[in-house]
């Protein structure tokens, strides 16, 4: 990954949104939730970029969503 490229957690397979208003964002890889996007927390606390970022397959949602709609 390009060292200067900003990590966008929303594009990561480990990122999730919670129902908790105090901790709306989470990372399954690092097993935590927080008020800020996980990559920002990692950078602030460790001084390093997230090493566990893994980009989502952009077609995964579209394929499964379309498949379930077609079966109805």
Give structural attributes.
single chain, 72 residues, alpha+beta, three-stranded antiparallel beta sheet, 3 strands, 29% helix, globular
Could you describe the 3D structure shown?
This protein has 72 residues and is an alpha+beta fold. The chain has one domain (9-71). It has two helices and three strands. The chain has helices at 38-46, 60-71; strands spanning 15-17, 25-27, 32-34. A three-stranded antiparallel beta sheet has the order 1-2-3, with no helix packed on it. The chain starts with 14 loop residues before the first strand and ends with a helix. Residues 64-68 have low confidence and may be disordered.
Fraction in helix: 25-40%
Major sheet strand order: 1-2-3
Order of helices and strands: EEEHH
Number of strands: 3
So what's the overall shape?
A: globular
Q: What would you report as the Rg, rounded to the nearest angstrom?
A: 15 Å
List low-confidence stretches.
64-68
* Overall tally of domains: 1
Task: Offer a concise description of the structure.
By secondary structure, the protein is an alpha+beta fold. Helix content is 29%, strand content 12%.
Topology of helices and strands:
Blueprint: E1 15-17, E2 25-27, E3 32-34, H1 38-46, H2 60-71
Antiparallel strand pairs: 1-2, 2-3
């Amino acid at each position: 990954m390009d060292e200067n490229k900003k990590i966008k957690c929303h594009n990561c397979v480990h990122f999730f949104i919670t129902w908790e208003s105090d901790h709306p964002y989470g990372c399954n890889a690092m097993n935590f939730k927080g008020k800020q996007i996980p990559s920002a927390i990692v950078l602030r606390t460790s001084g390093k970029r997230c090493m566990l970022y893994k980009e989502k397959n952009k077609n995964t949602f579209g394929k499964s969503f379309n498949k379930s709609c077609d079966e109805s």
